[in-house]
Amino acid sequence: MLGLNKLRLLLPLLAYVTLAQGSLRIRNISDRSKRTVSNQFSDSQRTGVTEWTSWFNIDHPGGNGDYERLEAIRFYYRERVCSRPTAIEARTTDWVTAADTGEVVHSSLEKGFWCINKEQPKGSICSNYHVRFQCPPVQSYWTEWSEWGPCSTTACSDVGIQVRQRKCLSSQPMPLLFVPACQGHHSERRECSTPQCTAKWSPWGHWGMCTVTCGGGQRTRRRTCVRTSASVQCIGRSVEVQKCGKTPCPAKCQLVCEEGHPNEDCSLCVCEDRVLHGDVHSVTGVPVEGARVSLGTHSKALHAQTNVKGEFMLAGVCSSSATSIIVKKEKYVPTTVSTSTNTTGSSRLKAVLRSTEKPYIVKHPEDKVRYEGGRVLFCCSATGSPKPSKYYWYHNGTLLDRKIYKYEEDLALQDLKFEHSGEYYCKTSNPAGSIKSSVASLSVIAKGTPACNSTPEAHLIRLPLDCVQPGTESKYYNAGRCPHNKCAGSLEFDMRCRDGAGFCCGVQSMESRVIDCGSYSLPIRVVTQCVCQKCMQPTVIVRGRVVAADNNEPLRFGHIYIGKERVGTTGYQGGFTLKISQDTQRLVVNFVDPTEKFLNTPKVFIFDKKSGSIYHDVKVMRKQKPIDINSRETNVIDLGEIKGEDPIGQLVIPPNSFHKDTGEVYEGTVKASVTFIDPRNITTAAATPGDLNFVDDEGDMLPLRTYGMFSVDFRDNSSNKVLGAGAVQVLLDTQHVKMQEHIPQMKLWSLNPDTGVWEEESEFSYSTTAADGHGRSKREERTFLIGNMEIRERRLFNLDVPESRRCYVKVRAYMSDKFLPTEQLEGVVITLINLEPKPGYSSNPRAWGRFDSVITGPNGACLPAFCDAMRPDAYTAYVTAMLNGEELEAAPSTPKMNPNIIGVSQPYLEKLDYQRSDHKDSALKKTAFKINLAKPNQNNLDETNGPIYPYQSMIACENAPIDANHFRFFRVEKDKYEYNVVPFEENDLTSWTGDYLSWWPNPQEFRACFIKVRIHGQKEVMVRSRNHGGTHPQTKNKLYGIRDIRSTRDMREANTSAACLEFKCSGMLYDQSVVDRSLISVLPQGNCRRIHVNNLLQEYLIKHPPFTQSNGSHSFTMMAPVDPLGHNYGIYTVTDQNPRVAKEIAIGRCFDGTSDGFSREMKSDSGVALTFSCPERKINRQSLFQRLQTNPGQTLSQMARDMRDSQGEQRQRSATQVVFPSEQRGRGRSRRISPGARRTVPVRAQQYQ
């Protein structure tokens, strides 16, 4: 026995030593226990076992092999892997241990796990592995606090921070790197202050020299203000001036020139025989033509101008002294350069001009809540070229006095009062334009007022379908909730730009109650009191997939940029995941294709800070195939290639317009690729770069209406280097602009890829020319709008018009087609595509003009759109809705338009002409609707209650009550129900409550578990899971929740369906102290009998006690597995930072029956855990209704005979009974039935058969 113990202790050490020496050849070993040991590569230093991490799979065996590097896993999953794992386990995606594969694999606790294809036997490659790690146990404690450190600031009259610290030590002798983290903070901070600032004058200095020797001058003396801070000033002047040099001067100029002679105004020296040669280029090296050159002493005078090569000459500039030269040009930042001195007699100067860029806010002020008498800091910062230097702050739309508030970029408010409450925003500008920040609100609460209302607000949760409360017959129960509003908590330091996590109203206490459902009862945890506490901040995730707009080909391994920083890469199927900072206000993501097959596409993503995750289906345009053009000739390229129709416009490139990045003119063959996003093709709307917004002169972001966008790519035919082009003309055919008021407003715009904002390039002018029409028999004169541009750094351009006729459209999303107010969905992406006006108002009803998306909140969503008050059908729109990649259905418009279902009352509904996408063709999808965008008439009462609101009524739209008109979408997921004892809304992660009975124990990591149940039977069956605590002392035999799901028909196999049923995962509870093995009961509802259990699952449950015996054949009971078993067991487990995403992935794998696939079609023959037989019950006798249908005459005659017989029996009974008083008689008649009557009923029932 002692020898076995020694062997058990030595095995992990031997495995570790073997791995350290090199590769490990894993062979099949018959003993299962030996296979387990060889699969877990552990550290001999470990002193205990804790729960393993999630499984990771970041590579596939394509290429050189499968590399599950620890460094890469930490890059993608960061804190989910501890700094020094003590063990590693590897399995294939088919759940085969590494030991059982017979493959050559490598493993290291420092590097991870890897398998190399060329090391495997011929004809085979590595399997697809996933790995997990084990971390050391927690055994640590804190030392005593140190003394408070020095104040962080040394400036006077300032407030700083003092810090004290403590150390985390291990209670066991362990190496320093193995010491686990203690619970709590290792440091504490408090405020400290310094002495008041002072300012005193020094003694006066000596008088200086006189400024002139004659003609009257001045001399000065100075004194210095000795102060301890720049915030205080000395009283009085620092300089005294005295007149001197009163002797009259001769009229001759006194300027002494080493070379040349003074000019007429005696301001500088002039050398008649000297010439200054200069070159002016852009940042990219392109010559800048038409730049104005002037001398520093005469900045407003024009002395020279650059030619087409960016060169200029300035006569009379001496080379023996430095001279300041100022270079200016429109749309460039002015620059000042100085000539260098030399003795050669000639001088040369080079100047570089940077393009101006409008300012862009990178730091916005944030919402704050403070007590009266406190203080607050709002911060604002902007970029631009040149960078803005002056900021203006506004309170409730009124400019704050800079002298009173003494602000620059940041606004500090002291001694807050109630009148300080309201909205604040900043504004800044540079020569290119202005910009405003987003609005931040400040709430000032009176002292002594509770930070938040302790009484919970009403929150109705839906009960199971079979739960009806006696007396009320209600299907809902008020569980209460605390509004996640910001409140005035106790901050460590209140003068930060961002309050960190901040404080919000949250749950302070809950109580357990029991809901009477009639035939059974349900436990529930109800919120009883709210309190101000630190906010729970979900991890904000943006996910999606990038595919081509034409055929959905994925953008594989594309580069993802936010600003100038590369933040990730798309996957093999085009998928991507981005973690977004909580202080992000506007998210601009640029997708770059390294293979140059698709256009580089900047996208402005909307995201949801409450639900934590949002999904975007990103479309990108395929690049147009390049054509060869001669750079020495005039080239014309059409914009728009709709078959049978004229192009929308043309690019006209004059000869010798192309240039290299050095500025040298390119003379040769150019590979030209011009890709046009044609608004006449509605499928291109989703590929729109940016968000079609611009910033006006006041700094407000406003919408644009597009007539087409194009991307240009010019390259050297031989070296494939990018070429620029100057003086390019853009022609827009006015036949495509039938809205005449748009023609004078039309402008050419370019996209700033870092900000996603369109900036003006040039205006258009009229020109008439002869052109060939596509499909026309002769040439005809047409009117074009002509704009001019230079192709420099930016390569995306737009033909747009600012549109002032704007409205908002109110849309809500629901859990089902019952459209219950309590079942609204948050986090749904609603998209509206503005369509071209109909014929008679414009040329083409298929064309689109704008593309907008908004996320639904607790009160739906308001989408911006173009509208018209004169004609209801002037503008139309398509509206769609998507939740985590799943399309929602719109309210139906056929067979009859029902205002109660659509959500809009008559007669306004008829005016809007609502039509779902399948209105005329039932074969089409039901996931969109089309409406007229008729601007509401405020004098018509029927049009003042939504669903379309004037642009000035945005607040009314956002705050509209649930009974106001609105359009509706719903989730097509019938017969699905989820009940949590501790209520939680998965679309609002801030609603999570820390409780032992919480379905999700960790608000930062959500683990979804599903079991696949196959049903043999003609009909789909409802399947329920009841989830109880199994082994944890706080939750044992207590209900976590209920899940109901109807099985889905397998279209490939007759009389077979399957259900992917969610159950409560085993694992740590919210206190992270003890693992709970959840007790799961699977209950098909109906005439069902269990006929098979997955053999591997049964074996696992037996070998991992406690084992629960399923007594009845109509259900199945188990202790939920701790391990993520996989499809071979019929169990599907996915861990993610968002619960909805985790469940969507797990359901997709469950439908597909694999551990790494995804499907929306049920495959009932693979990856199944349980099988039930659910035959239909045979009906032995017909009901009364059925008999009336098949033989009405005979049935009515039989009913008449039965009634006569029944009356005769009653008369006989009444004659033999004793007469009671009137009160007792009624009760006796209702209670007593003669034995003869009881026997008669079944006999007659048999006769009915």
Written description of the protein model:
- This protein is mostly beta strands.
- It has eight domains: 51-135, no CATH class; 268-355, Immunoglobulin-like (Sandwich); 358-445, Sandwich (Immunoglobulin-like), CATH 2.60.40; 460-491 and 499-534, no CATH class; 539-620, Immunoglobulin-like (Sandwich), CATH 2.60.40.1120; 627-769 and 782-800, Chondroitinase Ac, Chain A, domain 3 (Sandwich); 806-970, no CATH class; 991-1176, no CATH class.
- It contains 14 helices and 81 strands.
- α11 (1184-1190) packs across α12 (1192-1216).
- The longest helix has 25 residues, at 1192-1216.
- InterPro entries: CarboxyPept-like_regulatory, CILP-1/2_8th, CILP-1/2_b-sand_dom2, CILP-1/2_C, CILP-1/2_dom, CILP1/CILP2, Ig-like_dom, Ig-like_dom_sf.
- It holds the Pfam family Mucin2_WxxW.
- Residues 1-22 form the signal peptide.
Molecular shape: globular
The number of helical runs is 14
Helix percent reads 10-25%
Query: Which stretches of 5+ consecutive residues score pLDDT under 50?
Result: 1-49, 773-779, 839-846, 1212-1249
Can you give the mean pLDDT?
80
Backbone CA Rg: 39 Å
Give the helix/strand class: mainly beta
Characterize the biggest β-sheet.
Answer: 7 strands, antiparallel
Count of extended strands: 81
Q: What is the strand content?
A: 35-45%
Signal peptide: 1-22
Domain Ig-like: 359-443
Protein name: Cartilage intermediate layer protein 2
Subcellular location: Secreted, Extracellular space, Extracellular matrix
